[in-house]
Design a protein that fits this description.
Elements lengths: L4 E10 L2 E11 L4 E5 L6 H8 L7 E6 L2 E2 L5 H6 L2 E4 L11 H8 L5 H14 L1 H5 L10 H14 L4 E5 L7 H16 L3 E6 L2 H7 L2 E6 L2 E7 H5 L2 H8 L3
Parallel strand pairs: 3-8, 3-9, 6-7, 7-8
Antiparallel strand pairs: 1-2, 1-4, 4-5, 9-10
The protein binds adenosine-5'-triphosphate and magnesium ion.
Length: 237
């Protein structure tokens, strides 16, 4: 079967800045694949390009058999390709419940009712806080809301950009357990992380991006033990 996501020779520039210099990456259905790399490596650029927010200069992106290169975000959302962007970007003046409903804007009331039940099962705190304004949530709760909102769109391919950013270690570890549960519910996941250790422990396969190029790709458990990762991304512990 064709891959849920198949990126070939992807090049993206912002004016003179070349952010991606020919990236190949695949995600098979049911996998968690992680993309790790330092600040400015081009991770968010790749995610935003797949989600239709940034223009491809060269290369192609396929979703199963379909060429989705340059497709509108709305069309991508209809196909179940959903981005939970870096930095949460929740709506501070809307209630938690309304934030979630924004994620389901293309779906029926019935679908939204059902999915909201699932989101509340995964993140019980969001049910407790459903009538509070988004801005009153803690950082970790806002991150859960951002993921919950992405789930409300009914993802088949979920793009998670740095879900652990700014969260305490105990919250991060719970969050990654939930990410696995989301995969077990039938969602394919591409996960961008700077926290290489937990990302590699969670994912099936991994890619390492440096200055817009893939410099390593392997099974996550293999990369976790490799010298390159150890030196550059894991520190000494
Ligand atoms: N809108 C933009 N305009 C101009 N340059 C940009 C823009 N967005 C990103 N860049 C540049 O493209 C490169 C890749 O940025 P990107 O945000 O994709 O990196 P990243 O790997 O997600 O980094 P981080 O880990 O800090 O989130 C960087 O050099 C960045 O400065
Ligand atoms: Mg980024």
């Amino acid at each position: 079967m064709a891959a849920a996501l198949d990126i070939k020779g992807l090049k993206v520039s912002y004016g003179n800045i070349q952010a991606l210099r020919g990236v190949d990456l695949t995600v098979e259905e049911g996998e968690i694949v992680t993309l790790i790399g330092a600040n400015g490596a081009g991770k968010s650029t790749l995610m935003n390009t797949v989600a239709g927010l940034v223009r491809t200069r060269e290369g192609a992106i396929h979703h199963y058999e379909e060429d989705i290169t340059g497709m509108d975000t709305r069309e991508l959302v209809k196909r179940g390709i959903i981005l939970a962007p870096e930095g949460r970007q929740i709506f501070p003046d809307l209630s938690v419940k309304d934030n979630l409903l924004m994620g389901g804007y293309l779906r029926s009331d019935k679908e939204n009712d059902e999915t909201m039940k699932t989101v509340f099962e995964l993140f019980p705190i969001l049910e407790e806080r459903q009538n509070q304004m988004g801005l009153t949530l803690s950082g970790g709760e806002q991150q859960m809301l951002a993921i919950g909102r992405a789930l409300m769109a009914g993802p088949k391919l979920l793009l998670l950009d740095e879900p652990s950013l700014g969260l305490a270690p105990i919250i991060v570890s719970n969050l990654f357990k939930l990410i696995k549960r989301i995969r077990d519910m039938g969602v394919t996941i591409l996960l961008v992380e700077q926290n290489a250790r937990i990302a590699l422990k969670t994912a099936d396969r991994a890619y390492v991006l440096e200055s817009g190029r893939i410099v390593a790709a392997d099974r996550a458990d293999v990369l976790l033990k490799s010298d390159l990762i150890e030196k550059s991304y894991l520190g000494k512990s």
